[in-house]
Amino acid sequence: MDNTILIIVAAVVGVAIGFVIAKMMEKGKAAKAISGAKKEAQDILKEANKEGESIKKDKIFQAKERFLELKAEHEKVIINKDKKIAEAEKRTRDKESQISNELARSKKLNDELQEKIKDINYKSEILDKKQSEVDKLHKSQVQQLEVISGLSAEDAKSQLLESLKETAKTDAMAYLQTTLEETKLTAQQEARKIVINTIQRIGTEEAVENCVSVFNLESDDVKGRIIGREGRNIRALESATGVEIIVDDTPEAIILSCFDSVRREVARLSLHRLVTDGRIHPARIEEIVKKTEKQINEEIVEIGKRTVIDLGIHGLHPELIKAVGRMKYRSSYGQNLLQHSREVAKLCGVMAAELGLNPKIAKRAGLLHDIGKVPNTEVEVETPHAILGMQWAQKYGENKEVCNAIGAHHDEIEMNTLVSPIVQVCDAISGARPGARRQVLDSYIQRLKDLEDIAFGFHGVQKAYAIQAGRELRVIVESEKVSDDKAAELSFEISQKIQTDMTYPGQVKVTVIRETRSINVAK
């Protein structure tokens, strides 16, 4: 047991000695490591100090360079500002010098103006004195002239004015006549060329329309069925169509009379259907008339569409197309209105093209110029057809040129465009050509008589003759009462009177004839 204890003690002592020796060895290693670390730290500090000094020197150098750059820029800005200030001062000095020069010049001009005003005032005083002397001298001369002539100044003045008026009037008429002749010489040839070329390029028909239509029958037996018991069928037909039906002794024919061509056509077609069907009684008549009216209205629209397509007119309002179609069943002085309007449209297109204007607008205005002749209501009948047509065109959005041409083609309103006189001229060409229209004999004779009466209304007219179907008026004057100059004036006044007081197609030529005869008798 003692050995065991000794062993244990020896072991503990050995462990303690080993531990002390290990600690001493570790302490030696730590001292070496600390000394190495200190040396390494000193080396690092030296390197860091060297790098810091180098960086410091670089930053100081860069700061100096930046300072020099900023200083140079600042000096440059200051130099520029000094230069601008110097230039501004120079301009100010120049303006001051200029202003001083202007003031000196203005002062000089003011002095000169004052001198001139004084001179003008002096001359004005002299003129006033001389004017008073001239007035006194004039009064004395007028008094002397009144004494010599035996007339007062007012009487002499009135006589002189009357003489001057007559002379001026005669000279004016002579100048007017000369100017008109010169204008005709320069313009008539070209105008005639355009009009003749336009007329030659249009083919037309003569007037054949009237207010009566004849309905042919296969036999006279049908007349009794058309008349009906106690005339009820014919009364129903007249009431439904508004057409007067004349059944007389004319063999195999019934006459339909009405101023409205549409009604006559409705009555003719209705009669044809009734006679073909064989059932003729009031109820059947009303049914057939309604169907026929519907058919005619459809035909009117179709005719209007076909007309505008043939003429190359686009964008026309449907109501205006209907009005164009209705013109087929209207006539003016026996001339079919649709045929007349188509003719005027073609004439306008050709003439506008010859004059360098828009032919499409001219055609449009020519076709629509007489749409006012197919009114829809009784109230519209009272409005002149040119004004009514213009109102319709405006209502349905037509061009202003077209509206003005429609309203002005009979001079109801003022012409504002070049298309308007073209439509007026082409309307006159279409209406005044031979065979275009038929006139009642009484109205024709009355128009000739009115022409001659207008001529007889002027002083000095001895005889007057309307010739060439009223297109020329020849006036023979008394040579003792009418001079040559007065004859030219009389011709102009008669033409103006005819133009103002009468309505006629085309134009009327007025020729004044003055004949001087010297008669002596030898015995």
Can you tell me about this structure?
By secondary structure, this protein is mainly alpha-helical. It is 71% helix and 7% strand. The protein contains 15 helices and eight strands. The chain has helices at residues 2-149, 153-200, 221-227, 232-241, 261-277, 282-311, 318-326, 337-354, 359-368, 378-381, 385-395, 400-408, 419-432, 441-456, 484-501, and strands spanning 212-216, 244-246, 253-257, 331-332, 335-336, 461-467, 472-477, 509-514. The strands form three sheets. A three-stranded antiparallel sheet has the order 1-3-2, with helices on one face. It has a three-stranded mixed sheet with strand order 6-7-8, with helices on one face. A hairpin with a 4-residue loop joins strand 6 and strand 7. The protein is flat. The termini are far apart. Mean pLDDT is 79; it is low at 205-209.
